[in-house]
Design goal:
46% helix; 108 residues; 3 helices; single chain
Amino acid sequence: MNNNYLVPANSKKSRLILGFFTVPDLIVCGIGGGLTILLLVIVRDPATWQLVLISLPLLTAATLVFPIANYHNVRQLLTNIFNFAFGRRKYYWRGWCVKEYYGSNDKQ
């Protein structure tokens, strides 16, 4: 094919577990689910409001790993927002179209 190739749009999905989750995603869901199950075992005969409070760890974990458009999931979106808000503000261009003259007297 004259050294032309096409990368499929879903090529990164093959790296994900079940096509959606990474290992940290499963850890977050496992901790939330485990904590919810532990609380359900500890609290006997919960009222409705207690049941909602008990299920909050699982609901929070599931919300964090829920897939959304243009990002892997909500956890990745929050990570990107945090990195943008508290990360480096000065960006240096290192692209293929920039001519770098280190130690040269030539000015453009």
